[in-house]
Structure formats: structure tokens, C-alpha cells
Amino acid sequence: MAQTFLHSHRSPPQKGHDKRRHNLQKCFDIIADEIGCHWIKLATALDHKIDIKAINNTCNDNGKKAKLCLDNWYRQCHFDNALEVLMKALGDCGCSEIALEVKMRNTDPLRGVPFAPAEHRIEQREFFRHLRKKLQELDRVSSEGDIGEDELYCKLRQLCQELHIICRPLHATLADVVSHLKDFIQANQNRSNILFVFDDIYNDRQYEILQFARKSIAISRFLHSRAQLSRYCMAMPNSFTSSETSQVIAEVYRQYREKFYRRDKELIAQAIETCSRRQIIISLISGLHLETIDNWQHLIEALKLHDQSLNTSQDDQIKTLAFKILDWSTTNLNVKTRELFRYLGVFKRVNIHISSIMSLWQKDESNVVLLLLELKHRSLIQNADEGNRYWILHDLVVEYLQKPNDSTVSTQSYVRILHQKLISGYLLQCRGDWHLHIDDSYYYQYLVYHAIQTENVSTITGILLNFKWLANKIDMFKNFCHLRIDLTNSIRYLTRRRQKEAQKLTDLLNLFDQYEPYIDVSKMNLIQFFLNYSSNDSWIFKQAMTIAQEEIKRSENHYWVMNAYLENPGHPWIESKALGICADSIIPAYSSTRYSTMSIACNKVDANQDCNIIVQEYQAEKVLFKLKVSGRLIKAVRISPDGKLIAIQIESQIEKNAWIWEVLRIDTGEVLDFRNDKRLPTEWGNDLHDLVFCPVIASNNILMTTNENRKKTNIWEIQDNRIIATWKSNFTPYPIQHACFITDDNKLLLWYRNAYKRCRVEIWSIDGWHYCLMLLIPSAITRSSKNKFVACDNESDGSVLNHVHYIHKCDPILILAYGKHLGFISITKNLAKIPYLPETFTDCFHHIMASTHPIENISISDDHRLIALQLDIRAFVVIRVDSNTADCYISITTPHIINHLSFISETHHVLAYDADETHSIYRYNLQAGNPNWRPIESNLKYLTTLQNKKRRVDPEKLFGSSYAIINNTPVVVQMIECTLDGRLQLQILQGEKLDQHGDYNLDRKFNLCYLHNDLDGIVLLGWSQYQSTNHVNRNLRGSHYYYILTMQLKDLKGNTIKSMTITLKAFEDNYGNFGILSSYYRKSDHTLILVIVQTHYQIGNDRHPTELRKICPYNQKEKGIACKIDLSTAKGNNIQPLMSSPCQMGDRKLLHDVWGMQDGNMFADCAQRHQFECILLQKGKEYLMINPENQILMKQSNGNQSIFNDRRSLNKADNCWSSRYFIEVGLQQIQMYSNTTLKLCHIIGSPNISSIASIKCNQEQTLLMCHIQPHEYTVFKVINS
Hints:
Number of strands: 60
Strand order of the largest sheet: 25-24-26-27-28-29
Radius of gyration: 40 Å
Distance between the termini: 58 Å
Strand content: 25-35%
Shape: globular
Low-confidence stretches: 1-16, 107-122, 138-148, 255-261, 938-952, 1031-1038, 1100-1105
Largest sheet: 6 strands, antiparallel
């Protein structure tokens, strides 16, 4: 289809009175053309002194009369507000539409369009008059618009950056970006009148996406049905009118010989009629510059040769005409210019930067511009900007250029040659390094597309395996969207060609997919990302290391690499997807892959803190449903197995503190009629505790509800737009602990505790609504002296039943989780007939495993072969069941938090959801071929969830650990209790790889160990209680209570250097609380400082008593407190007293009076961010503001200030005052700022550092050690050249 180019008619700029008069004369012309006989009313409304009779006698043309009237009126009045007076007069005389036309024409609604030269200017008056009216209506009526897919996503991300809207850098979906834009426009009323123009929409399915635009114009070359339904639709005329056609040709001829035009006017008209006055044809004809009768007659004959009687569409006829004219036009070019013009067919039909044309033609800019202007003169190409930097080809011209001249050459071969020509030009322009080409908004976006068209494998891989090119592309678009498309298309092509290079590109794509939530393209260096997240033995890591070393040699950058990690650093998930910020209590719901592609239903919170319910496809991440719930909380979501319905547990608007369930259709958003049947009993109208969809769909969807008191379940059937009761109900005398459908079945399982220390388990068939199984099992169990499990009457003395599941695809068994113990009961035919499980439970219960933590939740795979158990917030175990036996297991420790586990239907893939840190879903592949599966031996009754490959220390036997960088060498010391004799052992790990250096036995009991960077030794601390009846102090009653604190200093070889003891005496008649929080070593005076928690103990003696320095009472909510410590003059024990101000933190003037201008402003700025407890630390010209939770609020150095709004933790005070970097920790990231400019310099990220407790570094800050809670350590080191 032909593409229409619209130009605004704009005159050269004028100044002062001349410009006003010129604009007014244009308005007079418009009025004269439109007003007709109403000019008399206008004259009367303007000035009753106008001689209407004299004007009426001058001529018979009402337009001329109106123009004469207006000219006379302006000459007589001649005032500055003439236009306003004229608009009012038009309204008074009933000509408001003309006034509207004048206003729109005068304000130039297309003023953003570049200035068009006179020879290219043509106005289709009727169409633009209609368009202007619709533009005026947009001032009163909001409209919706949409475009796009991948390119739309990128354009909208760029728009967000221009509007300073903060989006999540990489993993924000198209729907997220649109939501950000919509929230921004709603929150900024001054931006609500922005007119968005969406040009060239191809896909009608995308019209509903861009709902953020309140006023919009959508331009498309296709007449989409949705466009007709959702917006006012105007069709651009396909042809010029006769006068418009003549005007186009006349404008061209005026440049040459106007007399030829007058002489040949009839001949020209005949030629124009032959081509149906189509715009593209007229434009191409005007570019021929025909000056003689012979030329025109030749053209007419050529056009007549085209047989329009053929059974072809009108578009095909126009295409054939256009190609004939292009043939004629290109034959008039010299051979070299014609060849270069034909090369332009290689480009995509978008704006092309001149640098890409220079690469294709291999010419300098001046020669390229001259050639392009010549082609423009012949209407073969158009410039897209005034500076001749961007050019664009019409669709038909591109299609023409992609046809080979030689009929023996196929179109595919010819187009491949064109792409090879462009790629060769690009390679020559960037001197063999793909990343050196300039960013011209075309090269990085379409280079891989052109490379694939060349069908050259080395070219494709050479581009996509160039990490610097990848970094440039990601940095240019500030997202991963375009690169993902390039990788996917390239992998598809290489796989089809069976090229082994596809594996490398797959590795790259998998790495990006696996760590998507950890990518921050706005800050993170891509080479550093590869060093952080790729495996050390992978080709990605090795190539990134080579690039890093080369850049370090040139002093271009610094890079860090993880040298040691005590636990296995591998990450077993194969994919991760960020869902955005979600409420912690909302667990995503997943549809089944049996009925459609899997969809995810989840909750998101937008910038206005409003809840949004989102349903999106899992793979494509296409948003299928979005519901904004302003001011209401969301408690839970469910999605039907076919992905057509969503159920939402939402806060009631009628009853306070009540929750209701609403069921909606995902495709239409329609709310289904639910529980409104008047025949239902009264108790059915109560609030519902839970709602669950049946995983198996027969004819209709079925769901189950549990009442608020959890004593009744109901089965409902969904028919059309209603949810009707099936009257299949179940009443229980006690609250139901859990009711659910059996995985991949239409059976219902429920269980509850009775008053007799028993639990009743019931399994119901939905179809016949009858019992399939009913059992009574113990509510709690305990291990007997014979190492068997027996029923326990007292729940506090045993393990309580937490989970019950039923699997039957192999042999029917009942899975039971008692606290930390997992086991099963085989459901034999005889057992199924017995309603009460007798005391033979011990013989029926088969123990599978005992975990280190209580079992949090259980998920069953569809084939009932795998059982996933969450044992900890960062660990889960999957057990495989085969023929009534648990034969093997896999244990997985995750760096991310686990809030919920769920199997993907019909697969052995587990989805783990992290709602606290990354707000992401992690997919784990647990297929049988996974090498981490381990057999469960018959005598194995204990599984630990942590598989330690280096430390080999059970966490329960590890008493304490510490770390330091001593003489530029990382050291870790661990105190381990020996399992045989209970003695303590000191284990020392040393070096950049933290290799084991030695094991030493300790001669006495110690509680803690400490290492310090400046102390070449190990500090061991132990304490014991002691009671004495010797009344030294008569003021104390009864016995004296003491703690004896023992300190010992050892070297790294285990030799004792020094020992000492300290006695702590109680003030009260009990031991009170005692503990050591931390230890510090001051090298200047060789002093060891202990931070002790003590509530009732006297530290010191009569010569050096403990002194309370200052009491600072304050009210946190009403006033807050401001504290300051100046470390500049602190030497040894001369600690400056704490300065504090329990004053109103929000009162800036009062803070200025107390603290002075500079410090007062710092406290006031923190108060504006609702931080009312602030501690200001000063050391020279450096300032650090923290709160009592040890979170950084502000850092200032040499006049530069950085505000931390995301509450980063202060890990080590030493890192705050270094001369090189200021280090702080974010979510699984270490961020290093220049300590002089406070600009972000480096980001070190890894899922392995999700819970950093502290960081230590050497003096040069080239070596970092991270303490990861509770006793894990990581070493990062700057890469050397």
C-alpha cells in the first residue's frame, strides 16, 4: 500500500506588525472562502459604520465582498487584538464553525512538522479541514491510541527517559512501561494535554496497549476494524483532485518554463488521468521534469501500454505504473548514479542516517549529499529532516529497487548481494571492529538483520560474539529487548543451517534469561556482568576476562572477579523472570499448559502505590489482562487451568475488614455473577476463606470455595457468565486445615483436627460426590526408643501434622509431613475400607526423610512422580517416588528467597517465587537426566539441605567464624566442634582461593573468634558464669553474680601469643543479659575494643569506673532526634562527646539555630524523607548520615553529596573514609562510588551475595572480602593486566 507523507504549509518567519498583518490576511482569506452571504451579518457585528450597501454594489462574488469588508474594517480600526475581536464577531453572527476553522488554521496544529520547500507543498483542503475539526474535538474529548510491539517498546522506553520517568531498566515489560506512562500523565495534569501521534500502525491488535495517551492521532496505511470501533476514523484520499494534480505539476514547472505548462496543460491532464491521479504516481511523474510535447506523449503511450483490464487489484495496478515510471526515471541517471541508487533497496523502510548510506556507497559525506539531492530532485527519495542527515524511501521505491535487472538472477540472490554489499561497507567503515561504527540509530538496530540476510555464518557470529558491540547496543537502547530479538533470530537461522555456532549464541541468551532480574543496564558494565554471572570455565567468562585485561592495560577501566566462594556458586535455575514489585502476601498463580500457553496471574504495585492485577503469558510476557484497583488491597489471586478466568480476593468496599472473591473473564474483563442466587442458604453468602479452580476441565470450569469459618466447602460450576451452585457441599464439625483439588485430578482432599488428638483425612470424587477415602491419623507423632514413629497425645512433645497430600498415578499413597519429618502411608484395598487407622500406624507409616528445618510447603508434579518440599527460605528438596518407594532426591540451595514452589503442568520443572528481594520467578529443570539426583539409601534418614563442596562443615557444628585481609592475604577462621569428643577445633582458610591452611585444637571452651585487618593474629573470646557469696560491697544483697571473660591471641599457625581474663560483676541479683556484638582493633595504640551487650553488669573498677556520659530523651514520632559525632579530632581514648538535639526535625529554621546552616540543612533534608532519627558522622570535609538501623541516608565529600533513598546498609565504617572508593551494598550488588566525586564507578553483582553482613578490603581497595550470613565468605579481586 502507498504511504502518505503529510507536510504542513508554513511560511517563512516574519516579525512585528508585518507578521501580524500577514497572519490576519490569511484569516481573512479563510473567512472569505467560507462565509458566503453571511458576510453582511459579520460586517454588522464588527462595526455598524461599515458601508454594506457600497460594498454590495462592487461585485457579485460574496467572497470578494467579504474580503473587501474585512480589509476596510482593519484599515479603520487597526488595533492589536483584531483577531480576538474578529473571533467574537463570528460567534455573534452564528458562524462559530468558521471561527473554529480560523483558529485551527492560525494556530498551525502541525507546527512540529519540518519546514517544506514550496515545490513540495500541496494541501488537500477538504481532508485537512476535517482533520482540524477532529483535532479541536480532542481538546474536549480524550482519546486512546496504540502502536507497536518490540520497536514500540523501545520507543516508549526512550520516551520515559525523555520525560524522566524511572522504569525498571531491563526487565520491565511493554505493559510496565505503558503503565508508568499512564501513571505519569495522570499524576502530572500539566502533561495530560500532550497530543501523541502514532504513525504507520501495522497490527490492529496493538490498539489497546497505548492507553496512556489521553489525546492521540493514529495513522495507518490499513483500515483496521478496531480503529473504527475505538476511535474516529478518517480515510486519506487515494488520489489527488484535478486542481491538486495541476498544482503539483505546475509547482515543478515554475522552476523551468511556465509557458510550457500553459501550452501543454491539456496533454498533462491526459497523462494524469491515465494514472488515476494517485499521489505516488504524480510525485514520480513530477520528478521526470518533462519539458517537451514529445516527452509527455511518450509518457502517455507508456502508461497506456499498461492493461488495466487485467484481473488484478487496484494496488497491483498502481505498483505496475510506478515501476514503469521508475524505469523511465532511472534510465535518465548516469550509470554510476543508477547503480548506487539501486543499492538503496537494501535498507529497511525507516529513516536512514547518512552514515549508513556512506558505508553502503563507500563515499565521503559531501559526495553522498550531492547524489542524494539529485535523487531527491527526481522524487526518488525524500529527506526526513532539514539538515539532510536522515533520508527515507517510499515503500514502492524499495520494492522496485529489490527487483534484479537481470531476469536470470533470482530476487533472493539479488537481495542477498545487496546485504553483502552493505555489510562489507559497514565492516570497512568500522575498520574491522563492529563496535567502532558510530551510533546513527540505524546501524545497531538493524545490523544483525542485514547480517542474517547475507547468510554468512561468520558475519553473524562475529557481530553477536563481539561483547563490546553487545554492550554498545544495550547501552544505546537502555534495555535488552532489541538484543534478545537479534539473538533469537540468529539462533533460529543457525539452527536451521545446523551450525555449531548456534550453541554459543544460545549460551549468551540463556545467561541473559537466567539472570534477567539482576541486570541493570543503566548502570552495569556488560563485561563486568559476564565476569560476575558466567561460569569461570565458560567461553563467555574467558572472553570477558581477555577484554577486561586489554582495557586494564590501556587504563580504560577496572574489573573485578570472584576468586573464592565457600559454597557451590552454581545456580541451578535455567530461567528467571522479574514480575515487578509485588505484595509479599500475594503468590502468583499459573494456568495449565494442557489447555493453552501458560499464563501468570500476579499482583503489582505501580508508582502511585495502587494495586494492579496482571495476567501475562509466561514465555512471550505479553500482558493479557490488567485491572487497576485504587485504594483496595489484594489478598490472593487464582487463575483457571485454561487461562480464561481469574479470581481475585479483594478488600470489600461495603464491609470493613472484610474480603470478597470476584471472578472475571481475562479476555473481556467481565465480572461473572457469583453467589447472587436467592435460593442459596444464608450461610452461603458469608465471606469466603479460599477459592480454588479444579485442575481438570471436563465440560465447564469447576471451582471450590471454603467458608470463612473453614467448616464448609462448596463446589460451583461456571456456565457462560454465571457461577452456579452444584449443591455439592461438605460440612465439618471442626475448622478445615486445608482443602484442595488433587494435582491433575478432579478429586477433592480435605483434612481437619478433631478434639481427640486425631486428624481426619477425606478424599471426595467430584463427579459422583462420594467418599473415595476416609482415614483417621495421629495429629502428632514422636520417635520411640525403637527408632520408630508412634502417635503422640501431647502435641507439644512431638511433631505436629502440617501437610497432607495424595498421589495415585503409580500406587496410591498419602504423603504426610509432621514438622521436620516426611513420610507416607500406602493406601491398600484393605486399608481403604477401614474408617479408623488403628494403633498399627507405626507399621503403616514409612519414613522418608528428616530435614534440618520444618517443611514449609509441598508441591506435587502432574504425573505424581516428584514431590517438592520447601525446607528453608533459601532451600528446597525434590524427592522422586517410584512404585511406592522414594528412590532418589535432589537438594537445592538458592541464593534467592523462596516464598512458594509450584510445578509447571505436565513437566518436571519447578517454579520458585521470590516475593521479598528480587520479586522474580525462577525455573528449575528437574528432569531425570539432571546429574544432581542422588539415591536415597535404605539407612538414610537425615538429609541436609546444604551441599558444601569446599568447607565440608555442618552448619550446626560451626560455632563461629571471622575474616580479614591480613598483609593483603584473605584469611577466614572457623571454630568447629568435633563430633567425637566435643572439643573445639580452629580451622584456618587462607589465600585468594580460601584454601585450607591448617586445623588446630583449642585447649579450652571459647564462644567467639575475631580477625582484624591490622592485627596479625586470631582473637578468641570465651565467658562463663560465676557466683560468690563474699559480700565485698555491702550495698549488694545476697550472692554476687559474675561473668569471667577470657581472651586469647593466637597467630595463624595456632600458637598462643597472649592470654588475659576480665571479671564482670552484676548490679542485680541475677546474671542478666550478656553478649559480645563485635570487636574492633585500633592499630595506633594497639587497643582491642569490644562492643558488649550488658544490662546488669559493672565494667571497670574503682580506679576506672564506668561513666554515663549523656542522656538524650526524645519522642520519635513527635520530634525525633539529631545526633552528631566529630571523628576529626578523636585520637586514642579522647572520644568527642555526643552532640544531640531533641528538636523538631522538620523545622529547618530551628535546626539552623541549633546546628548551623550546613549541618542543619543535612538534618532537615533527611526529615523531608521521613527520617527523624539521624546520626551525622564527620571526619574532616567528609560527612556520613545514618539512622539507628545502620542504614546510609547521605554521604558528602568535598562539597559533593549523594542521597540514598533505598536504605542501603552501612557495612564497615572503614569503607566510608577511604581515599579511593566509598562502598555500599544493594540487593545482590556491591556498588563502589568515587570518594571524591561520589559518582558510581563499579558494580559487582552476583546472586551469591544476596545477604551480605559486612565487607572488608585492603588499603588499596583492590581486594574485597564479603561476609555472607551466617558463615559464608566471598573474595573479589581486581583483575591485573
